[in-house]
Design goal:
Elements (H helix, E strand, L loop, with lengths): L1 E6 L3 H10 L6 E4 L16 E2 L10 H20 L3 E2 L3 E5 L2 H16 L6 E4 H7 L9 E5 L3 E3 L1 H14 L3 E3 L6 E5 L2 E5 L4 E9 L5 H6 L9 E11 L10 E4 L9 E4 L5 E4 L3 E2 L12 H12 L10 E12 L5 E4 L5 E5 L5 H19 L23 H10 L6 E3 L4 E2 H9 L7 H8 L12 H12 L30
Parallel strand pairs: 1-2, 1-12, 2-9, 5-14, 12-20
Antiparallel strand pairs: 3-8, 4-8, 5-7, 6-7, 10-11, 11-12, 13-16, 13-17, 13-18, 15-16, 19-20, 21-22
Length: about 475
């Protein structure tokens, strides 16, 4: 029997898993998909919010503020990119300026450092390409950007390095409540655990209903769509740039990524409860994003767009994060983790691990190692470092992805670590082949060949993402021998 079963391997579930391994506990993470970080975590704005906008006294306000403070420490331990580039919430009229003052006061009550309202001249100095319509902004220097999928992989990898188990393609279809815990069933497997942590994202209410007849919250999906522009536009903006927030969220953003791309979006579209997998993009909503972003930043060059994508946010009926034990003893809900869920993840992980370790009377793990081995970024090495590495490991001398200068050695590392990639998108999230301008058009077949070889499986079995997303189904023609010609 496991002490804790975590359902959901997004950034929240992975952070809890890693923090639980600081204690002497037997932990398993159950993920219905083919990889970690394939839900909301893989398709969001990648912002570490400063935390000024969540109401004082709310779970969002508390955990965003705490999460932001420790984000740098976590990313250092896990060797994940994180840059505190600051954010600007732009005002376009006096009513907006009043809103900025209220946000500043709320942020100060939450202990957010360095908040200040800047005038139009200072805003232009910060952002030369800002719209002429903006008359001022709220500046939050503690805001930052990260890579949420790599953070999640790193959390899970470190958890597994310290003894946690990960079970992929485990879709929970039934939970039996027993006197000493729970029986958790998929279609072909059963897991027993003393405690359950519900980190199931847009399915968190569905999971809770398996044990509770009258749940105290519901979740509905809210879709957001994005443009991702090429690195050629690096430098168009220097900060995370917001409009004043509305009741639907923080609005259309423009921001740089940690890799130097430009991200524009998301919009906010409420979907039906049955549409929890609806991650397609739509022309009318992408046009709306363009129109809205034009009010923030001048001359965004959409001709440099390399992909569009969409993600789903788990919108809770409570309007706040749901954190804690539900009506069923031993069943812990971590639900409604929309923005600022990523920013709050480090603090939520620590909080839940502390609560569960007390409940289970678990002592500290004296062998816990908080450091995740740094992954080699070949492109960022000096020529001398590259020469030494290639001599030691020749695979680092073979470029597979020309757009991003990703080597075979980096792909092998992404496959063979704990929580290694098994799909084309899984390798893309871990090492970035296919993340450049051609979006895998040239390197994709080579990555598939490497996966096939290293995993000792037919190349036809390699998937794009889910276990049903096959890329190849067979050869187009038979091989011809010389004797047959």
């Amino acid at each position: 029997m496991y002490d804790v079963a975590i359902v959901g391997a997004g950034v929240i579930g992975a952070s809890v898993a890693r923090e639980l391994m600081k204690y002497q506990l037997k932990v398993v993470v159950l993920e219905k998909g083919n990889d970690v970080a394939i839900g909301t975590t893989k398709a969001n704005s990648a912002i570490v919010h400063a935390g000024y906008d969540a109401p004082f006294g709310s779970n969002k306000g508390r955990f965003n503020a705490l999460g932001n403070r420790i984000f740098g420490e976590i990313c250092d331990e896990l060797n994940v990119p994180f840059n505190r580039i600051g954010s600007l919430v732009c005002a376009f009229d006096e009513e907006d300026m009043t809103t900025l003052k209220a946000l500043k006061e709320n942020g100060e009550s939450l202990g957010i450092p360095g908040l200040r309202i800047i005038d139009q001249a200072m805003l232009r100095a910060f952002e030369p390409n800002i719209s002429d319509l903006a008359i001022g902004a709220l500046y939050a220097p503690s805001a930052g950007i990260t890579e949420p999928w790599e953070l999640t992989v790193a959390y899970m990898e470190n958890a597994m390095d310290n003894g946690a188990n990960l079970m992929l393609n485990f879709e929970v279809i039934k939970i039996d409540v027993e006197s000493d815990g729970f029986l958790i069933h998929s279609s072909n497997q059963t897991v027993r655990a003393k405690r359950i942590v519900n980190a199931a994202g847009v399915y968190a209410d569905t999971l809770y209903k398996m044990v509770c007849d009258s749940p105290e919250f519901t979740i509905h999906p809210r879709r957001g769509q994005y443009f991702l522009l090429d690195k050629n536009v690096n430098g168009l903006v220097n900060h995370v740039i917001f409009p004043c927030p509305s009741k639907l969220g923080k609005g259309i953003l423009v921001l740089p990524t940690t890799e130097g791309n430009l991200l524009v979006g998301p919009d906010s579209e409420d979907l039906e409860s049955t549409e929890r997998e609806a991650i397609e993009t739509t022309g009318n909503r992408l046009d709306y994003i363009k129109e809205s972003a034009a009010k923030l930043v001048n001359n965004i060059p959409y001709r440099e767009n390399i992909t569009t994508f969409a993600g789903l946010r788990a919108e809770p009926s409570t309007g706040d994060f749901i954190i804690g034990e539900g009506k069923i003893s031993g069943f812990y809900n971590l639900a409604g983790m929309k923005s600022p869920g990523l920013s709050s993840a480090p603090a939520i992980g620590k909080h839940v691990a502390t609560e569960l370790s007390k409940s289970l009377k678990a002592p500290l793990n004296p062998h816990f190692n908080p450091i995740r081995q740094k992954r080699i970024r070949f492109e960022k090495l000096s020529d001398a470092e590259k020469a030494v590495l290639i001599k030691e490991k020749p695979a680092y001398g073979r470029i597979i992805c020309r757009c991003e200068s990703i080597t075979e050695g980096e792909i092998l590392d992404a496959i063979h670590r704990n929580c290694g990639g098994r799909t084309l998108n899984g390798i893309k999230r871990r090492a970035r082949p296919g993340a450049g301008r051609c979006q895998g058009g040239f390197c994709g077949p080579r990555v598939m060949e490497i996966l096939s070889r290293e995993l000792a499986v037919p190349v036809e079995s390699i998937c794009q993402e889910s276990s049903e997303s096959f890329i190849l189904i067979g050869k187009t023609k038979s091989e011809v021998t010389d004797n047959e010609v």
